[in-house]
Design brief:
Blueprint lengths: L18 H10 L14 E6 L2 E6 L2 H10 L4 E3 L1 H11 L8 H11 L8 H19 L6 E3 H18 L7 H15 L4 H5 L7 H26 L9 H7 L11 H32 L1 H9 L1 H15 L6 E5 L3 E3 L2 E3 L4 E4 L1 H4 L42 H18 E5 L7 E4 L1 E4 L4 E6 L1
Parallel strand pairs: 2-8
Antiparallel strand pairs: 1-2, 3-5, 4-12, 5-8, 6-7, 9-12, 10-11
Helix pairs in contact: 3-9, 5-6, 5-15, 6-11, 7-9, 9-11, 11-13, 11-15, 12-13, 13-15
């Protein structure tokens, strides 16, 4: 590995897991459910309950599913069951013409021209949070909670021009509840169609009522504020957004669901990405110093390498609506196609030293990764609409944190990633901060 730091990872089974063990592992930590061959071969097929289950690492196959023929593939029933209680009918789960309308309407609000408006919220919130961390010098710090609270505050201000003291604690509590009790699929979630509720669906329905009630309360507060002459935040942009083809905007319920989607996608994924970046840097002292010395060139490279090793969206699952051919393999109606950035980003055929932390892969002048081998935000029509905002936020926060603080970890206990909606750590380690 040429002296490169290799972060710990969950065990990889040598052979495909037996049926029952596979489902148990998928529910506890999906990252340990795929065999070693998945990291070495372009295409893996397995028959499960009469349907084929494919893992696609082949670039032409990925292109076929996500770019060339995405209309033939929909989200799996399990993904819909898990995500609908927390995002409603927002952009993440919408399909067909409804998705096209939402995408056309939302995309301009998150376009590059909107970044200066949103960036000022990011910078101001980050400065305040890091100033507060100065009081914790030489004391144990929970960096995961710190990043979650910071990105939630950034979401509140950039979306609503609201500080999140009133809602932040309850929002974090409910997101923690969701991850612990509602986000892990059971066997029935995976095999039953969405029209048939599973026992877990009833609990998810109760959660959705409380969660959407909280989002509606935030939206009500924001609507009480006087309308400005110029947009001041993402909510103003969404409220004013119109479909360029029909002129239609979002009604109150649609606006709520888009806000819920953006809070989950824009807050939680960015928080875990920052956590993993800081965890890697705390363990790789040389790389942390290089970043502190050259933030302009290395910050984005460190983030890109972090997103390679720990992609927040670790799995893309699609169910075939009709027959297709993917990388020369026949796909039948109802078959499940999986494109897993967790696997793809560590594939032996695509990456040199795939398990090592090496930001030089992404420095200016470095060879470009093979096409469709790096998908931290997906690809094709359904590429993450908030990718630019997430990268801008993460870059600002990471650079500012390392500029101010030298980070070390309190414990040598390995921090292992767990696949639960996003790539979460198995525990929140304590960090120690010192001023540079």
């Amino acid at each position: 590995m040429n002296g490169l730091f290799v972060p710990p990872k969950p065990p990889v089974p040598a052979q495909p897991l037996p049926f029952r063990q596979f489902f148990r592992t998928l529910a506890s930590n999906a990252l340990s459910s795929w065999p070693a061959a998945a990291y070495e071969q372009p295409f893996i097929a397995r028959n499960m309950l009469g349907r084929h289950n494919f893992i696609v690492n082949d670039p032409t196959g990925i292109h076929r599913v996500l770019v060339d023929n995405p209309g033939n593939y929909r989200r799996s029933p399990a993904a819909i069951r898990i995500l609908r209680p927390i995002v409603g009918q927002g952009l993440l789960l919408a399909e067909g013409d409804i998705w096209k309308l939402q995408r056309r309407t939302v995309a301009p609000a998150l376009a590059p021209r909107s970044m200066p408006l949103l960036t000022r919220h990011i910078v101001a919130t980050t400065d305040e949070a890091l100033d507060a961390l100065r009081e914790r010098i030489d004391a144990p710090v929970d960096i995961l909670a710190t990043m979650q609270n910071l990105t939630l505050e950034i979401a509140g201000r950039s979306m609503f021009s609201l500080e999140m003291q009133e809602y932040g604690r309850e929002m974090r509590r409910m997101l923690t509840e969701f991850a612990a009790h509602h986000a892990k699929p059971g066997m029935l979630d995976l095999i039953l169609p969405t029209a048939i509720p599973t026992p877990r669906d009833f609990a998810r329905k109760r959660f959705k009522k409380r969660w959407m009630g909280l989002i509606e309360a935030i939206v009500r507060d924001r609507l009480r504020m006087p309308e400005p002459d110029q947009p001041r935040d993402l909510f103003d942009l969404l409220r004013a957004a119109r479909d360029p083809e029909t002129g239609a905007g979002f009604d109150r319920e649609q606006l709520r669901d888009q806000v819920a989607t953006l809070i989950l996608a824009g807050h939680e994924t960015t928080a875990v990405a920052l956590f993993w970046a800081l965890t890697l840097l705390a363990q790789d002292r040389n790389e942390q110093q290089k970043l502190a010395d050259d933030p302009d060139n290395r910050t984005r490279a460190v983030l890109s390498e972090t997103l390679r090793l720990f992609p927040p969206a670790y799995l893309i699952v699609r169910e075939a609506i009709g027959a297709d051919s993917v990388a020369g393999q026949a796909v039948c109606r109802g078959d499940v196609v999986m494109i897993a950035p967790w696997i793809l980003h560590r594939h032996r055929m695509l990456w040199r030293d795939p398990d090592a932390f090496d930001p030089t892969r992404f420095l200016p002048g470095a060879p470009v990764p093979p096409r469709f081998s790096y998908l931290p935000f997906g690809v094709g029509p359904r590429i993450c609409v908030g990718a630019q905002f997430a990268l801008t936020e993460a870059t600002i926060v990471l650079a500012a944190t390392i500029k101010r603080f030298d980070l070390t970890m309190e414990s040598t206990r390995p921090v292992l990633p767990v696949g639960v909606v996003t790539t979460q750590p198995d525990h929140a380690p304590a960090f120690r901060l010192r001023l540079r």
